[in-house]
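Q: what sequence does this backbone want?
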């Protein structure tokens, strides 16, 4: 019975993450300019930092806490690099429907994560991280990089994909310990 409840929570978090990123994969692909792309990138990183902050507060699992600390450190670094780039380019990230969709989904996910017991939280958090990193990598490769017209922005986005793939592998490794 407990395993069934935990798997339902994982499915719910996966569905929310999917819905939050669904605007990135809809039949009608959103057309974003470089300032909007920059905003999506910053928002996606901020969201993952917010999930990691919850994990640091709720989890007692050393692997989960270590993963969360890595997410906080790495995603803060990406935001700092992105900020330096947009400052250099003299542009300001611009809010858009994709960013708003990500934020709306993140609020729902954070509410669910915050409501879980520590024991249920760990698996749900890691399941969400796997799904979230897959969605962000896909969005980078199939939307953001392709639509970026600025060479430096496009190269920056391409350069962070390997780090996100490493995060995904790390999350999948931790996820195996919950099966």
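A:
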């Amino acid at each position: 019975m407990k395993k069934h409840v935990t798997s339902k929570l994982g499915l719910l978090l996966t569905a929310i993450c999917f819905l939050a990123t669904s605007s990135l994969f809809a039949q009608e692909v959103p057309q974003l300019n470089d300032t909007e792309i920059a905003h999506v990138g910053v928002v996606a990183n901020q969201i993952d930092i917010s999930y990691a902050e919850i994990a640091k507060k709720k989890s007692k699992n050393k692997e989960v806490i270590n993963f969360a600390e890595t997410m906080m450190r790495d995603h803060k670094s990406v935001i700092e690099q992105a900020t330096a780039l947009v400052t250099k380019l003299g542009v300001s990230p611009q809010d858009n429907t994709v960013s708003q969709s990500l934020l709306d989904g993140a609020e729902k996910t954070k509410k669910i994560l915050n409501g879980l017991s520590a024991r249920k939280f760990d698996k749900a958090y890691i399941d969400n991280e796997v799904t979230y990193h897959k969605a962000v990598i896909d969005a980078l490769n199939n939307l953001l990089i392709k639509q970026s017209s600025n060479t430096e922005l496009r190269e920056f986005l391409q350069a962070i994909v390997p780090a996100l793939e490493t995060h995904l592998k790390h999350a999948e490794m931790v996820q195996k310990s919950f099966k």
